[in-house]
């Protein structure tokens, strides 16, 4: 059961997308062709197998233009569906429904695509202890929705932004003059609820970092063999996260190395849109 996002967090994105599409004069095609009080019934349906996410975006897009419309979700976010499955049934003002159609489909298709790709990665790691997590490589303005879609697909969220965890990467290390100094300064700055993660790019750097108290160490572009060596070297001292070079062909070997976390930028920056359509009934 996926905990849905509150409408309060979704509405600004939906309304901005509607405003972008409606422009300065509204939907002139609907105004020209459809009676002002015409009513129609439609369904949102998938054209492909996949995992659903973003039903609330479609609902809020419709209701923003016709507050009296009926929107009945047939499935829930996180559900696996086959091509042809009906996701939601809508009845309302015809102009409003058709004006909201593209915004609803853009958002739901995008989010369902993220959820579908995430589910594929998760299924490739079944039987290991590794968890699939996302990154900050998200569409500007859609991060909260795309990270929600990752959860719908069975993944787990990494940090949401620069403000909710300390992640020391190679350029931070260079600016600080080394791993030890970077971690010392991070620990002095961090509050008791702030996690500190360090990125390393070699087993030697990992060995240097281990005594200095990172909560998580990111192993950047390690081979599966070096990941296994890193797991043996670190023991249970720290959470290890594999990152870089992760795809559906490599993720199983990475997971079998024993790392606890695998971060995958592709979940949000390369997920294909799930083909969803709106059909009159």
TrEMBL record:
Q: Where is the Quinolinate phosphoribosyl transferase C-terminal domain?
A: 114-279
Q: Name one GO biological process term.
A: NAD+ biosynthetic process
So what does this thing catalyse?
Answer: nicotinate beta-D-ribonucleotide + CO2 + diphosphate = quinolinate + 5-phospho-alpha-D-ribose 1-diphosphate + 2 H(+)
Task: State which pathway it belongs to.
Answer: Cofactor biosynthesis; NAD(+) biosynthesis; nicotinate D-ribonucleotide from quinolinate: step 1/1
GO MF term list: nicotinate-nucleotide diphosphorylase (carboxylating) activity
Is this entry keyworded Glycosyltransferase?
Answer: yes
Where is it found, in Gene Ontology cellular component terms?
Answer: cytoplasm
Q: Where is the Quinolinate phosphoribosyl transferase N-terminal domain?
A: 27-112
E.C. no:
2.4.2.19
Q: Does the keyword ATP-binding apply?
A: no
Q: Which UniProt keywords apply?
A: Glycosyltransferase, Pyridine nucleotide biosynthesis, Transferase
> Any idea which positions bind substrate?
102, 135-137, 159, 169, 199, 220, 243-245, 264-266
What domain of life does the native source organism fall in? Bacteria
Gene3D superfamilies recorded for this chain?
Aldolase class I, Quinolinate phosphoribosyl transferase, N-terminal domain
**Similarity comment text for this entry:** Belongs to the NadC/ModD family.
Assembly and oligomerization? Hexamer formed by 3 homodimers.
NCBIfam families from the xrefs?
nadC
Its biological purpose: Involved in the catabolism of quinolinic acid (QA).
Xref: PANTHER family: NICOTINATE-NUCLEOTIDE PYROPHOSPHORYLASE [CARBOXYLATING]
Q: What's the protein name?
A: Probable nicotinate-nucleotide pyrophosphorylase [carboxylating]
Record the organism.
Phenylobacterium glaciei
Q: Which gene encodes it?
A: nadC
């Amino acid at each position: 059961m996926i905990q849905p996002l509150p409408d309060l967090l979704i509405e600004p994105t939906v309304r901005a997308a509607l405003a972008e599409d409606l422009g300065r004069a509204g939907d002139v095609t609907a105004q020209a062709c459809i009676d002002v009080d015409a009513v129609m019934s439609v369904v949102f349906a998938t054209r492909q197998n996949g995992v659903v996410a973003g039903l609330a975006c479609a609902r809020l897009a419709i209701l923003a233009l016709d507050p009296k419309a009926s929107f009945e979700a047939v499935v829930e976010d996180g559900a696996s569906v086959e091509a042809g499955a009906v996701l939601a049934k809508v009845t309302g003002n015809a102009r409003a429904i058709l004006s909201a159609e593209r915004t609803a489909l853009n958002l739901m298709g995008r989010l369902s695509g993220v959820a579908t790709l995430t589910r594929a990665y998760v299924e490739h790691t079944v039987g290991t202890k590794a968890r699939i997590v996302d990154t900050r490589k998200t569409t500007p303005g859609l991060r909260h929705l795309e990270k929600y879609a990752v959860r719908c697909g069975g993944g787990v969220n990494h940090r949401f932004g620069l403000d909710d965890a300390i992640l020391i990467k190679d350029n931070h290390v260079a600016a600080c003059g080394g791993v030890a100094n970077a971690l010392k300064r991070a620990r002095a700055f961090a509050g008791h609820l702030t996690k500190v993660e360090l990125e390393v790019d070699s087993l030697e750097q990992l060995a240097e970092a281990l005594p200095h108290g990172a909560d998580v160490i990111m192993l950047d572009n390690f081979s599966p063999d070096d990941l296994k060596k890193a797991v043996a070297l670190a023991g249970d001292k720290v959470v290890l996260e594999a990152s870089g070079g992760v795809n559906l062909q490599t993720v199983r070997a990475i997971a079998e190395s024993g790392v606890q976390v695998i971060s995958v930028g592709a979940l949000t920056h390369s997920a294909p849109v799930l083909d969803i359509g709106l059909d009159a009934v």
